[in-house]
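Shapes recur. One chain:

:::
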Amino acid sequence: MHKFLLRLALFTAAFVPAASALAADLDVPPPPPPVEELRPATYDWTGAYVGALIGSSCIDGTLFDNSGPQLYEMAGCGFKGGALVGYNHQFDNWVIGAEADWSRTNDVVENNDPTADFAFRLNHEITMRGRVGWAEDNTLFFLTGGAAFAQGNLDGIVAADPNNITGKHWGWTIGGGVEHAFTDQFRLKLDYLYTKYAGDKYYSTSCAVTCDVDIRKFGNHEVRLGAIWAF
């Protein structure tokens, strides 16, 4: 009996330190992650950016040929491309900013009427807009609006007239969209703009007869995809 108790005491004395060491090992917390792996939980939208855009442009208006006289529908869709620049400032989840873009289209309107065939495009289109949005981390939902200018190009309304006579159109624009940051610098955005332009007279002094054309006020619907590089 005494030998059994002695052996039990020796076994207990050997087991307790081992169990304590094992428990100590289990209580050791894992090492913290390296500092370079830590990142902010919220994307920072504050800063300047530049980018490029592509999209579609659909015009709805009327053209009046004074030499006819004749009124023609001026409606159609085409492609556009251009560049943009802007700046954002973030307050909590709110983001305000300003953006400007320049673009040009192919022939948006084409009329194949044999008595007055013509094509119309926008050589230059510029918008200058304010933006306000709500940021959900690296996704921004925004509204935008401001002023717009376009130089239109009219080709072929009168056979005796030289091609590519131009006019100027001023207007206002409004729209909205969504923008997403894939990295700290690279973002994509998809937006829609509606622009209302005032009319202008297209006139060439080389005509043997009166050949001035009035492009009356028209609307321009645009859907654009933008690729952005932020600073």
Remarks:
- Residues 140 and 205 are 50 Å apart (CA to CA).
- The first strand starts at residue 47 and ends at 65.
- The helical segments are 2-27.
- The longest helix spans residues 2-27.
